[in-house]
Amino acid sequence: MLAAVRMTAFLVIAPPFSYKAFPARVKAMLGIGLALAVAPRVTPGYESLETGPFVLALVLEVVVGAVLGFLVFLVFSAVQAAGSLIDLFGGFTLAQAFDPQSMVNGAQFTRLFQMTALALMFASGGYQLIIGGLTRSFDAFPLGLGMDLARPLELMTHGVSQMFLATLQIAGPLAVVLFLADVGLGLLSRVAPALNAYAMGFPLKILMTVMLAGGVFLALPGVVRSLTGDASQMILGVG
Predict the structure, then answer these.
(1) Within 10 A of 196 (CB to CB), how many other CB atoms are there?
(2) CA gap 5, 146 in Å, rounded
(3) How far is residue 233's CA from residue 192's CA, in Å, rounded to a whole number?
(4) Alpha-carbon distance 75 to 156, whole Å?
C-alpha cells in the first residue's frame, strides 16, 4: 500500500502519465501494478506499523511521490515553454486556448510541442527510464521514512534554471529570426510609411514561423531524449 501510494502520487503529476487522457482509475491500477512489481525490493527491512504511524507513513509517501513527480514535470516544462516562446514571437498568442486534456493553456505551438513530446516519450520508451528511476527511489527513500526537503528544493532551483536554458536552446534560433523580422519591418516602416509594414507583419511572421518550425521539430527527438535522461538523474539525485 505504501509503495502504491508513492507510485500513484508520482503518476498523477509526472509526464507523460499526468495527461488527462489517462483516467484516474487507470493511473491507480498502474500504481498498484508497479507497487506489486517492486514489493520484493522494498519488503526487506520493512517493519509493520500501527494504525497511527501507518497513516502518517501514507501521508509521507504522498509527499515523496508528489515531489518526485514535480521534479519530472519541471524538466519537461521546457518543451511547453519553448512552444509558448514561438507563439509569442510568431503572433499566435491571439489564438490562445485551454486544453483540458493536457491541462495546458497556450496557442498552437504550445499544445503541439506538448503532444509531440508525449508521443516521443512513448515511442522512444523514455517513460520506461522514468519509471526505472522511480523504482530506484525506494533505495534512497525507504518506505515510511519520508525525505529531507533540502535536496529537492535545491534541485528545483537548479531545474528552473535548466528549464529556461533548454527553452532558449529549443526556440531561441527561431525567436531570433522572428525578432529580426520585426526589426526589418520597423526599419521598412520608417523608410516607406505608406507601405504599412506592420499590417504586413502578422501574415509574414506567421508564414515564417510555419516554414521554419520544421527545423525545431527535427531537434525535438534529441531534446526529449536529453530531458528524459535529466529527469531520471534528478529523481535519483534527490537521495
Answers:
(1) 11
(2) 13
(3) 55
(4) 9
Give the pLDDT confidence of 69-111 residue by residue, as tens digits: 888 887 788 888 888 888 887 777 777 777 776 667 777 788 8
User: β-strand 97-99 against 104-106: which pairing, if any?
Assistant: antiparallel
Pair 155, 238: CB distance under 8 Å:
yes
From the CA atom positions of the chain, what is the Rg in Å? 22
Residue 219, all three cell numbers: 531537434
Q: Which residue has the cell 520508451?
A: 125
Domain that holds residue 171: 2-237
One-character DSSP codes across 71-125:
HHHHHHHHHHHHHHHHHHHHT-GGG-EEETTTTEEE-HHHHHHHHHHHHHHHHHT
Find where cell 514535480 sits. 70
How many whole angstroms from its chain centre is CA 42? Answer: 28
pLDDT digits (tens, 9 = 90+) for 10-57: 888 887 777 777 788 888 888 888 888 888 877 766 667 677 777 888
As for how many domains the chain has, the answer is 1
- Is residue 101 within 8 Å of residue 111, measured between CB atoms? no
* pTM of this structure: 0.74
- Angstrom distances, CA of residue 63 to CA of 140, 167, 168, 222: 15, 28, 31, 32
Angstrom distance (rounded) from CA 81 to CA 35: 33
